[in-house]
Amino acid sequence: MKKLFLRILPAAVLCAVLGAGLCGCGNLPSPDTGDADDRDWSIGNTSISDPVENLAVKWVDGTVTVGCHDGDDILVEETCNKPLTEETTLHWRLDGTTLHVEYGTPGPRVSLTSLNKQLTVLLPKSCALGSAAVSVSSGDVFLEDLQADQLALSASSGSVSAACQADSVAISASSGDITVECKAKTVSISTSSGFITLAQKGAAESVSLDTSSGDITAVLDRAARLEADTSSGFIDVTAADLEDASFHSSSGSMTLRSGTCPRKLTVDTSSGDVTVAVPDTPGFTARIDTSSGDFDSGIALSKNGDTYSCGDGSGSFQIDTSSGNVKLLNAA
Question: Residue 249 in contact with residue 300, Cβ under 8 Å?
Fold first, then answer.
C-alpha cells in the first residue's frame, strides 16, 4: 500500500470554509471517545493518503454514506445547510491505522439544536478494511460496496442500506428498515420496528434475522444455520442450499423454499399459515401440529400418528401452528 501523507487544508482555506459558521449554532452531542487530547483531532473535510485499516464513525443526526471511488485517497466530507462552529464541525483523527470520524468536538455534550449534517466517506475501490463501525443516533446509513473483515452498523432512529463483503456483518436499528446485500460468513440483523430484506451471496455459516414488528424477506445462496424471528409480520425465505433453519412468528405467515432438503427445520407460529417447499430427497421425518387448521402435502408421505416421513427420513422437521394451515410442497 502507498506510503501515506496526511493532507490537511491550509489554515486560510479552512477558515474560509468555516467562516460562515462562526456565528452561534448551539452545541450538539457527540459520542464520548474517552480521554483523547483535543489536540489529536483535526477539524473539517479532508483527504487522507495514509494507510487506513479500520474505520470508526460516530454521528448524531443526518445521513451517513460510506462508499468507494476511483481515487487513491480517503475522502471525508460533511455538508450542512446551517452555519457551523468549530465545535459543531466534524472532527477526525488517525490513531495508528484507525480513522475516527466524529460529528463534532469529541466527548459528552448537551444537545441544543439539530443540524442534520450529511457525512460522506469515500474509500479507494481497492481498500479492504479490517473493521468498519458506523453508529448514527438519528439518521440513515448507506454502505456501498464496502469490504471489511468485521462490519458493525447501528442506527437508533433511521434505516440502514448496505452492500458489502465481510467475514462478519452485524446490523441493528431501533426503528427503521434494514436492506442488505452481502457476502459474509456470519450475518446478524435486528430491528425493533421495521422490515428486514436480505440478499446473501456465497456460503454463510450462520444467518440471524430478528424484528419485533415487521416482515422478513431473505434470498440465500448457502447457509449452514438460519434463524428468523418476528413478533408481528411474515417470514419469506428462498434458499438454494439450507442445512438447519428455525422460524418463529407470533402473528404472521411463514414461507420457505429451499433447493435442498434441510437436515433440520423448526417452525413455530401462533397465528399464520406455514408453507414449506423442499425436495423429497434424501428425505425427512416431520412432526406436524396445528391446533386450528388443515394440513396438506404435495409430497408422498407415510404417516404414523402425527409423524410423517418420506425418503430415508434423515431430516428432522417440527412444525407447530396454533391457528393456521400447513402445506408441504415438492421443490424438486
Answer: no
